[in-house]
Amino acid sequence: MDAALDQLPLALRAEIDEIPTLPAVVSACLDELHDPNSNAQRVADLMLADVGLTARALRLVNSSIFALSREVTSLSHAIALLGSARLEEIILSVTLPQLFGKGPSGPLVKRIWEHSFATAFMAREIAVRAGWPRPADAYVAGLMHDMGLMVAARCLPAPIHDFLKNAGHDPAWNLAAEHDALGADHTEIGLALADHWGFPEVVRESIHHHHAPADHGNAVAIIHVADRCAESGGLAIRKIDPEVVEELDLTTCCHEVFPSSLSIPDDLDLLAGSADWASQVRALVRELVPNG
Ligand SMILES: [Fe+2]
Ligand SMILES: [Fe+2]
């Protein structure tokens, strides 16, 4: 399980060791949600033992991104309105920023969070539109896909800034150049972090292969396209050239990477280009991320 960690340079390994593991109450909630006989009320009861987690979850549910018509004041009410399947998304959305909370902040860290939440929301939308029946997995994989960059931003700020300054000239992400700059690329670093947090294979695969999704299945293809949607919507981590964004055709991107088991959504350019959506993600990051 530690194979990915062992491949990293010492500074990155030490950084991942410093990051807290998932809190016990979060792991217990995820175990319950992954149990085929899972019971939403049991998850709500587990969450209630952690006042901070419950409060953050309710703040997220009441944010504009969920667009609920009235205020939700209890977890039971949230589950009744949204369904238990969204609990995993909510729990991880409010937990991961806390685990990184004591690290450095700044424009790069903010861009990584905005891009990660943007990719997560787009991945869920694409999964629903493409007919993949696991939108919660798509969301979590989207949230995690570039977390390797967050680790690098914490311990190798100068090399990652230098790399990102030049990365936007390439329509594809240049993993080899990133590897040269950091001693590992963010898919390798992210994989080690996913192991540290005990994430399942679907998340590990999505992190590892999202820049080269061919033959890696539905989740990886969805994350690849969601990643491009986030960049197309103006929520990119790198300083991407405007011409590169303009040339992005998200429907063509789906045709290139989707396995035949996924339908091609026909409204992704419209969805990614919506100003409302991008501003909701930015507002959400200000709400959820310490110093965000
Ligand atoms: Fe990436
Ligand atoms: Fe990305």
For CATH, the homologous superfamily of the largest domain is named as Hypothetical protein af1432
Largest sheet: none
Shape: globular
CATH top level label of the largest domain: Mainly Alpha
N-to-C series of helices and strands:
HHHHHHHHHHHHHHHHHHH
Heteromolecules bound = fe (ii) ion
* Alpha-carbon Rg, integer: 18 Å
The proportion of strand residues reads under 5%
Q: Which class best fits the helix and strand makeup?
A: mainly alpha
* Percent helix: 55-70%
**Number of strand segments:** 0
If classified by CATH, what would the architecture of the largest domain be?
Answer: Orthogonal Bundle
CATH topology (fold) name of the largest domain: Hypothetical protein af1432
Distance between the termini: 32 Å
What count of structural domains?
A: 2
SS summary, helix count = 19
- On the 0-100 scale, what is the average pLDDT? 92
Uncertain stretches of 5 or more adjacent residues: none
